[in-house]
Fold Arylamine N-acetyltransferase.
Amino acid sequence: MTGSDLDAYLEAYLARLGLTDRPPTTLAGLREVHRAHVARIPYDNLSTMLGRPDPVEPPAGAARAANGGRVGYCFQQNGAFEWLLTQLGFSVSRRHGHVWFRPDEKLGTALNHLVLVVSGLPAADNPGGHWWVDAGLGEGFAEPLPLVRGDHVVEGWSFGIGAGYGAQAAGRPTGPAAWTYRHLPGGVLRGIVVTSRDHSAAAIADSHRALSAGDDSPFRRVVVAQRIVGPEQLTIRGLVHQVLTPTTRDQRDLTSYDEWRAALVDDLLLPVDDVTDDEWSSLWDRTLTAHRAWDEAGRP
């Protein structure tokens, strides 16, 4: 890709985010591009649910973002976001993320999330200058979290950063290499353990294949789309539309095909120009069947 091609992709990517100027490589610029990304490009698993998952490589994700397409889920979102931040001049590094949902999963070591750290931006409350940026949580934080142990409030939500397990035992402070994370109350996931375990491109490719094509993958069970607009966590999961804030939960069922498709496109901003009528029909039937089974089981 030539320099002019890179510039064109970068400008198109920023335009997708609603940004007319390149954000400066400052903390204010980082916050601006982070907020725009999680608000304007939805986290989604639609391509996976359609049986044609998109590539995980960062340039491919960045191209989908620049061309108005779906970017995807965690590995794809953060790969594209890493590309964007690097092109803007930020210092970005990667970490291994293990997302857990139940207490018995907390000490697992599976790579199921790509974690990004932007460094070199010290602030009064973060003298080390390391910031956790994340466009791939779906439900997450609207702007970067400082990698400082404690509770951090963003738009009324409290997110917790703790010491890595080894560091905690040795009494060392949290640093940019390893930490634990407590998620927002009421979220689907519970927390993340971040380490320097293998997070190479090959490891991510292997995990992506398992998550996008494996028979037991949670990403193949029900369609999900999410974005974060200030304090609002917007989600469509199956046929349930939810808007979560620090003080309210507005949840409703989408009861018709037209309502469901319109909500995905209009509320979640999900690009769907490549989805055929047959694919829509099949996905609706599967989603409706799963919703009815969930209903009959008491919505566990």
